[in-house]
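dumping these here so i dont lose them again. two proteins, back to back, each one seq then structure tokens. dont judge the mess
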Amino acid sequence: MDAPVNVPVDDPNADTEWNDILRKRGIIPEKPPSPTPIIQEALEEAVKRAHKNRLEDKNLDELDELEDEEDEAFLEKYRKQRMVELSTVSAASIHGQVYPLQKPDYSRDVTDASHKTFVLVHLTSSLGTNMESLVLTDLWREMARKFGDIKFCEIRADLCIEGYPERNTPTILIYQDGDIRRQVITLKELGGQGTNMQAMEKLLVDVGAVKANDHRVLHTQQSDGPQASRSASHADADEDDDWD
């Protein structure tokens, strides 16, 4: 029986005539396919997708400004899409205000109502000196006006839950389908006294109350930009200094 022959191979992956001969004879394995074409294809597809969806975050006014740059038929498609979105939101916007709650009506106004839409409850502080509660009260009214398809309610925490700790206010309770989907104790995780609309809208997106591509959310992101997040961080840092 012939002894196996050790064939010298410097680099089995190199594109050489010698390696081609060895591959044909099964002495070395076939060279694995290069990942480059796959990566290039993925990048090209991403560029095409980004170009195709370049108008996704544009409102009607911004679409009108692009008349000289974009194909009219393409723009008209997005105009109609925006009009449908606006019409749908408008039809569902039956609230538009903050509802004061009474404990005896809580089940009807919150738990039962959450089978039709998201219901957010702000358990407020009983003290006029709780700055976070005051901040959230202002944001609550702005949110209610902007997101009329969501029901925003408010009740003093100690009147809703006897003995509820003041240190836990403000508290946000988010209801859907009769259950609490999320609760936020104080505004610490949202930015403390620097909590803003961008943080509140992110909370709505996180729980599924609004979509991430909702034009109302995108408008806030474009208006505030990264500066809002930095402001919230600075405000939170100031809060920490107060407690040192």
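---- next one ----
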Amino acid sequence: MAPHANDSNGVTHELATEPHEPGLSKEEANSAKLSEFVHVPQFEDKYEERAYLKGRLAAAFRIFGKFGFDEGVAGHITVRDPVEQDTFWVNPFGVAFSLIKSSDLIRVDEAGKVVEHGPVKHLNRAAFMIHSAIHKARPDVNAACHSHSIYGRSFCTLGRNLDTITQDSCAFYNDHVLYENFNGIVLSEVEGKQIAKALQDKKAALLQNHGLLTVGATIEAAVFWFVSLEKCCHAQLMADAAAAGRGGETKKIGHEEAEYTYKTVGTPLAGWFSAKPLFDVIHRETNGEYLG
């Protein structure tokens, strides 16, 4: 049974569901007080929080650039502004992910008007239509990511949901949707609203013939869900091909095990904490240049 384990003395312990501590008992988790060092930063000063989030958003684009998630001028990540929460920050249209700095970001209101900007103030209309609808429909969502990553967009041609075949894929168990409509580039308000409606309360969507979309309460979680979902798509494409070549199919993780694992790797806190190494590496590699 996944949720319980016996120690060397034969005593059964209920296992904890702390981020990335799958073998830890609740007693051990409580004594370790993991929550003391696994927590999302909190700010009393909303302007200070704005500056922090702009830096994290710029770092997020550097991460996407590092992973090759850019495709020409396609792709966008947004974060809700903590000062004026009916606006959000997004990348300027036509600026490479790997070059974006905090000062390059633009802030957009509900009408699609650019109210703050850096050297480039052009707005990707598709970015506004998709992200504006999501931020309006989901008050719990503070960040959203979408790009035309190679394995994500390849998997999205299959018209199916992700199978639960690896531990990592359990993070998306019953927490992602398939959006089956494709009407070309999202330039209409109606299409954006349809995507937001299809997303429901989930963390991710597979946009058929298009690509991946992830959301989170934090920019870190949204970014990690995207990186992880892209890798899960890659893994399934390879696993399905290998299984088909042998005349078989992949082995699926059972409901109880998938649900239990989700509580460990699929929570908002797990997403935030899992992204920390990605952001740390980008900061070290760029020497914080993206904060300029």
